[in-house]
Amino acid sequence: MRILVVDDEELIRDVVCEYAENEGYKCDQAEDGIKAIEKVETNKYDCIIMDIMMPNMDGLTAIKEIKEIANVPIICLSARGEEFDKLQGFKLGIDDYVTKPFSPKELIARIKAVTKRTNGDLITVGDITIDELKHEVTIDGDVVELTHTQFCLLKLFLQNVNIALSRNAIIEAIWGYDYEADDRTIDAHIKLLRSKLGKYRNSIKTIRKVGYKFVYEKK
Amino acid sequence: MRILVVDDEELIRDVVCEYAENEGYKCDQAEDGIKAIEKVETNKYDCIIMDIMMPNMDGLTAIKEIKEIANVPIICLSARGEEFDKLQGFKLGIDDYVTKPFSPKELIARIKAVTKRTNGDLITVGDITIDELKHEVTIDGDVVELTHTQFCLLKLFLQNVNIALSRNAIIEAIWGYDYEADDRTIDAHIKLLRSKLGKYRNSIKTIRKVGYKFVYEKK
DNA sequence: TTTAAATTTCATAAATTTAAGATATTATAT
DNA sequence: ATATAATATCTTAAATTTATGAAATTTAAA
Lengths: 219, 219
Fold this sequence. Notes:
Two copies of one chain form a homodimer. By secondary structure, the first copy, chain A, is α/β, with parallel strands linked by helices.
């Protein structure tokens, strides 16, 4: 899942990207509208975050052009109270709007909402994608065949990236709270899942005496 | 559920408190950063609402200090357009942000969200952080790999900063009350833990004939 | 029903962590 | 300064925990 962050302030770009990358998005940056258009011409994005006020080419003009070359959801950033811009923006087909200063968490939530609208219900972390509708997992675009338990297990991990999951938590999530599963059983499933995860094989870390954790670090 | 409202304007404090109390929160007030720190030192809060711009000590400085002495979620208030403060703030570990003028309802909603999600996840002392959710310890942002006993031991220390822990207390906390551990065994664990604590290596003080103490003085 | 696939269990291997003894070092009191 | 007691460190063996391959069982499909 790739997003493009367009803002003339590097600090803002960095903060947005940091948060987004933590959620498993791959981020590109552009510092003005012209650069943004160049990026859009050569890359495919799932969402664009765009500041309205920028030098060279302002956001609204850029959006107009982008909407002509690609069908991609756009979330706008703007200073508070720029009512006129806002209305203009929706006319141009902006999908959502966030006023500065904004909470990164809120922004991430909106990105998720917007991409869900266009892509259906996807869980994406790095190059892994779970499409719940299709009940299908892909890594780098290639379909990975998983059994049902493996699918649930992976989903659990991707919904809890970087969070340590105790064996009990895993059992509860997959089999229900009253199921009595042997610890070795979980290990076995972990093993099978790992064996199918290719380059993400080592992303499932063992935490001794606790359980497992799916780690994702932006590159 | 107790919250602390920090703002130099009495009117704002009163409004926030009134709404919060309507929702069942108990409210304390402080009119500047210094008073806020005093409050935090002697009380336990579930959330702090803090204005950024204040006389005597500004909000960001206060937050820095508060985060060192207590693990409490903080929501910031700020005038519009204080971009830099905002980004700084998230680096300091601010949990959410509301710009003035704000709707009391929105603020309450954010308090609820914040108290829900940050209850007992992080233990922070100086530059050491234990993230229980991630089951991860960081010092100055770098992950420190600890074994399970070392993890428990450190947690015990950080939960009892500046308090002398007898060997018995340590044994009881880590192995349970009926375990008979050799004194040398504890020394060994202390040694291993120290060796991983970097600049905090000497924060674990030996108290002869008694046990150990993790000392921390804010700078 | 038969067959194949998926799940669970089991046994063993491999890896890591822990405990405790021996020895060295340090602190304290005389 | 020296003796003594307490703690630190090193080493190694034991214990614990996880990984893995294979067998047994269950489930689902043909």
